Structures are given as structure tokens and as C-alpha cells.
Amino acid sequence: MTAVFESIGLFFVRVFEETGLWFRMLWRTFRWTFRPPFSIGEWARQMVRVGFDSIPVVVLTTMFTGMVLALQTFNGFARVHAENFVGSVVSLAMLRELSPVLVALMVTGRVGSSMAAEIGTMRVTEQIDALKALATDPVQYLFVPRVIAGIVMLPLLTILGDALGIYGGYLVAVRLMGANPVIYSGATYNFLDMNDLWSGVIKSAAFGLILTLTGCVRGYYTYGGAEGVGRSTTNAVVSASLIILLADFFLTKVLF
Amino acid sequence: MPMISLQHVYKSFGDKRVLDDMSLDIDEGESVVIVGGSGTGKSVTLKHIIGLLRPDKGKVVVDGEDIGTMPEYELNRFRRRFGMAFQEGALFDSMSVFENIAFPLRRHTEMTEKQVRDRVEECLDLVHLERGAGAKRPSELSGGMRRRVGFARAISLKPAILLFDEPTTGLDPVISDVIAELIREMDHTLNTTTVTITHDMKVAFKIADRVAMLFKGKIVEQGTPDVFQRSTSPIVQQFIEGRAEGPLTE
Fold this sequence. Notes:
The structure holds two protein chains of two kinds.
Chain A: H1 2-33, H2 40-50, H3 55-78, H4 86-124, H5 127-133, H6 138-176, H7 181-190, H8 194-220, H9 225-255
Chain B: E1 4-13, E2 16-26, E3 31-35, H1 42-49, E4 57-62, E5 65-66, H2 72-78, E6 82-85, H3 97-108, H4 113-126, H5 143-155, E7 161-165, H6 173-190, E8 193-198, H7 201-207, E9 210-215, E10 218-223, H8 225-229, H9 234-241
């Protein structure tokens, strides 16, 4: 029985340690953001990597989500003769929830994991020590460009996802299910206001911060060679996804 | 006043004490080689000198400044006085050889691209690498070439202190000798204070003005190569002769 309580206690100690570490690194990242030298080239490279290179994944995910959402709701709403509201449901769901969260989870899988693997490999091959020896703070050189790329590019990807999800829904409802295009389009925009868009965008910026910082922190504290790199990569994806889902609830509560 | 002074340094990792009241002074312009078996704290000592690790107790004074207590931001700037070459080179594998050597120049100087290119070529010449090597990726290089590129990167900012971490480990005897010659040559040409850690006695005797033996977390013997070789310490003699029996293995 004592062992059970001990393991529960240790679990909570670990959670608190990890949380403390995450916020400490967030603070260090924030401080180093405003100190020269500024690696603008590296910032741009990371933005391309996080944003531009993620476009295919975002296109497929959000467009098909919009399509399937329209398909499901159209069939369901038809039972109560409410097909005219499908456009509103798709657009509200995409803007407020699905696009920010799905984009964040997909980018976590694609970019968060590779950041953890890259920085983790740098750790086990002494490249992080080499950076320090070359008078370069690893947080400034590695964390800052990645975190900024996440905060800037995730909202842009989310806006792209919003548009594609709504368009996917339109395609299915109008072309496949035979909805009236004018009524559908009207329903799509009539019930939206700017707050729906902005809340999704703000959430996605927060998710961008979470997924990049978690990937960086996990990679930075890698130990134990190739096995350690694998462990950090998995942990980065699992932790970032969980934090994103938790943060999603609290941010939604605050923003809506 | 010595250029580098480790004063009664203690360092533990968990329950394991690695440095135990370790003291060592290194004068300006001197080439000191720290020798010792695996796990005796050689790399830990080197990392203390450049501030990658901080002592639990004791002082690490470099050029009159206690770097053990220096804030991280200041320490970061202070490290420009150092050049450190790592065991396997620790080259940035996302960059070419040229970009690796140019990295500190672009980051810490106001040099134009032409000046950077000239300095990188100068550094490649100093470590006897062809200028064409600049276009290669670290993964395309042999072990010896990786070390040389690591050396070139370490000297690019013209540091006052050069640190070498196991520069010949894993290399064949001929390449080891070539690397040792190169370290000696760089030490003389650049007139730096040089600290090298190795367990290769041939290399140690070739490049050292003074050899210091680290055992159980402290320096147990030190002297010029000749004096060190004639040491009556059974620890030193066992290490030089590479015998299995003796105080090192008890």
C-alpha cells in the first residue's frame, strides 16, 4: 500500500518538476528574444519549416474535416429539416475549434517531434556544449527562432485551415448533397462574427508556443544516446498534444 | 597570476564525487595536458574551465575572473576568449564545414562576408585542410578531418585559451601523431594558453609543457614531460606503462 502512495506521490512531484522546468524555459526564451544578436536568417528558416512546409498536411486535414463534418451534419440535420444550418455549424466549428486544434496537433506530430529529435541529437553529440563554447546561448539560438516561428505561423496555418474547412464543407453540401449554394453560403457567414475568427487565431498562437517550446525543452534535456533521442521525440509529441488539449479547454473558457 | 586557476574544486553528480578538492594553476602561454584514466574527471575539469559546469564548492578563476559564480549572460560573453575542440568535433551537422567555421565570426564580429571567407580560409590553412573542404558536410568527413575542422572553428575568433577534449581518441596512431603535431604547431603559432585532456601518453609528452595526472578527483602528480616520466609515483608509472596491476586498478 505504501508503494502505491509513494508512486502516486512521485508522479505528482514529477509533474510539478516538469511544469516548473517548462515555465523556466519559457521565461529564458522570453528574455533571450530581446537580446542581440538576432538571427533573422534562422528565424526565417524556422518559419518556412513550421509554416510553409506544413501546408500540405494542413490542407489535407482541414479540408477533409470540413467535408466530413458537412456530410455528418447534413444527414443528421435532415432528420429535423434543418439542412440550412449546416453551413453555420461547419464554419463555427472550424473557426472556433477544429481548425486551431487539428492544425496544432498535426504540426506537433510533424514539427514538434522533429525539433525534439534535432535538439536531442545535438545534445547527445555535444553540439549544444559546442554552441555554449562558441559563446552562443542555446536557448537564444535554438529555442527563440522555433518558438517565434510557432507563434507566428500557427495562426496563419489556422486561417488557411478555416478557409479550406469551410470550402470543403461547401463542396460536400452543395455538390454532393444538393444544398442550395446561396442559402448555404448565407448560413456560413450570417452567424459568424470576428470574435469567432480571432479566438481561434489567438488559441492557435498559444498552441504554436506550446508545441515548439515543448519540442525544444524535451530535446534539450535529452540524455542516453539514440534511445534517449527516441524517448524525447515520443515524449514531445505526447506532452505537447496533451498540453494543447488541456489549454484548449481553458482558453475556450476564457475567450468565449 | 596564473591564467587559469582551479582552487579546491569539488563536483558531484548524484552520489558520485568526480572532483574532490582539485587544484591546478595554468600560466599564460603554457600548454598543460591533463591525463588520467576513464571516469577520473578529465572532461569535467575542462568543462569547469570554460564554465559549462559550475563547481559545487571551490573557485575557477580565469584571467582574474571567478567564472564559477559569473551570471550566465556574462559568462556567455566571456567564453569568446576560449576556443574549445570537442572529442568527436561536435560540428553542427546542419551546416557545411565553411559555415561551421564561419559561425562564431558571423555571430560575434562585424566582419563582412569577404572578411569571413578570408578568415575561414586562413583557419583551414592553419589546420592543413584544403580550401575545397569548406563545401563538405560534416557527415562526409573522416575522424581526423572532423577534428581538424573542430580545431579550425575553435581558433576562428583568435582565442586566448584553447581547450582540447580527447583530441586523438578513436584515431589510428599515425593520424593521432599528425593531430598532436598540429596542436603543438597551433600552440606555438597562435601563442595561446592550451589545456588538453587525453589518456594517450605519447600525445601528452609531445604537446605538453607540463603534464598533470588526475586520479580520484584530484591532481596527484604534475611536472614537465621529463620530470613526469621519471616520477616515482606508482600511479603515474602504472598509467605510463599501461599495466593492469597497480594502484589505479585496485
